[in-house]
Amino acid sequence: MLLLYTGHSSTRIGTEPIPDYICPYCSSSGTLELQIFSRHAHVYMLPLLAYAKIGMAHCNRCHNNFTLSENDTEIYSQYLKIKGKFWPKLWQFSGVFIIAFFACLLVFSSGVNDKQTQAFATDPQAGDVYYIKLENKRYTTFKILVIRAATMDVAFNNYEVDNSSGLDGYGSNKGIDKDENYKEVTRVPRNYIRDLDEAGNILEIKRYGKPSLPL
């Protein structure tokens, strides 16, 4: 089971002196400053998203810190005025940037794959392997063996799967797209692929660079 170690951290994003306030610990005047912190969530050690600001008062003489309370009207109101001057650090959004990058990469790759599939579907070649969705909401594959003017000889996979990820197994050799699974040859009309494409049932077309067989 995958465990995600999550949590939150804070980093200081700004300071502002508050000279007219007396330190409650050492009674010094003019030694306090407001420190503004930005809190962010993280997964493992990767900052994910900044989500809040918090304030703390610090005495530069006795070096004590104390949290702000809404009951301390004067200092708390000053905190509310200045916290908008400071912004979270960009690195606190590292996780969001990474997720956005991979999301854009996925969309781009999907668009490239769709264009390639469309190009292959309009120009089928012997050796092409089609990953398709069936009417029963299951998935299988077939391989083009021979292309003629009006018909094609194809070999349908002997197996079907419930999930499209089971077609090629993502390179793990656990998918059903294996040479030994293509046994029986079926003759289909040449426009069979066009009909599959128009119905949106073609998931992917694998082209392994095999030459077309003679008609």
Describe the structure.
- The chain is of the alpha+beta class and 215 residues long.
- It has helices at 73-82, 94-122, 192-198; strands at residues 6-17, 32-43, 46-59, 65-67, 129-133, 139-147, 151-157, 182-189, 202-206.
- The strands form two sheets. The protein has a five-stranded antiparallel β-sheet. Strands 1-2-3-4 form a four-stranded antiparallel β-sheet.
- The longest helix is centred in the middle third of the chain and has 29 residues, at 94-122.
- The protein is rod-shaped and about 95 Å long.
- The two termini are 53 Å apart.
- The model is unreliable at 211-215 (pLDDT under 50).
Write the layout of secondary structure elements.
Blueprint: E1 6-17, E2 32-43, E3 46-59, E4 65-67, H1 73-82, H2 94-122, E5 129-133, E6 139-147, E7 151-157, E8 182-189, H3 192-198, E9 202-206
Quick synopsis:
The chain is of the alpha+beta class.
Notable features of this structure?
3 helices, rod-shaped, 215 residues, 35% strand, 4-stranded antiparallel β-sheet, 9 strands, disordered C terminus, alpha+beta
- Largest sheet strand order: 8-7-6-5-9
Straight-line distance between termini: 53 Å
- The Rg value, from CA coordinates, equals 32 Å
Structural class: alpha+beta
Order of helices and strands: EEEEHHEEEEHE
Largest sheet data: 5 strands, antiparallel
Please work out how many helical segments DSSP would assign.
3
Quote the beta fraction.
25-35%
Low-confidence stretches: 211-215
How much helicity do the residues have? 10-25%
Q: Tell me, briefly, the overall form.
A: rod-shaped
Tell me how many strands there are.
9
Mean pLDDT metric: 84
